[in-house]
Amino acid sequence: MRVPRRIAHFNKHVTNPLARAITPWLPNLGTLEHVGRKSGSRYRTPLLVFKTHDGYAILIGYGEQTDWLKNVLAGGPTVLHKRGRAIPLTTRGVVSKAEAAALVTPSSRPLYRAFPYDEAALLLTIAGAAR
C-alpha cells in the first residue's frame, strides 16, 4: 500500500515537526538528516527505522519519488539521529520489503512486518561497519 501524496504533504508540514520532538524516546523512530540534492540544504525527516545486523532498514511508504529518499540516494551525507546518538550511514540501496525483512533483527521484525507498506525498503549501513 502506498500512502497518498496529500497525506505525505500533511505529514511533511504538520506531523514531522511534532514527530521530531518525540523521536529520541521511541524505539523504532529516528530522524534522518540528509542533504538536498538540488538545494544543498540540510533536512531532518522523522522515520520508522528498523535495526539490521550492520545498519538500518527504512520502509518507503510514499513511493520511490519521495524527496528524502531521492536525497539519500543522490549520495550526500546521511546521519541517523536516534536515542541521543548521531549515526553516520552509507546507502546500500532499495530492496523489496520481503528482502529487507530477512535482514531486520528478530526483535524488530514483528513491527516491521505489521506496517502496511508493501513496496520497498531502503537499506543503510553504519559507516565503517563490516558487512
UniProtKB/TrEMBL annotation:
What GO terms are given for molecular function? Answer: oxidoreductase activity
Mind telling me which Pfam families this protein's record contains?
F420H2_quin_red (PF04075)
Q: Which InterPro entries match?
A: F420H2_quin_Rdtase, Split_barrel_FMN-bd
The identity of this protein, by name, is Peptidase
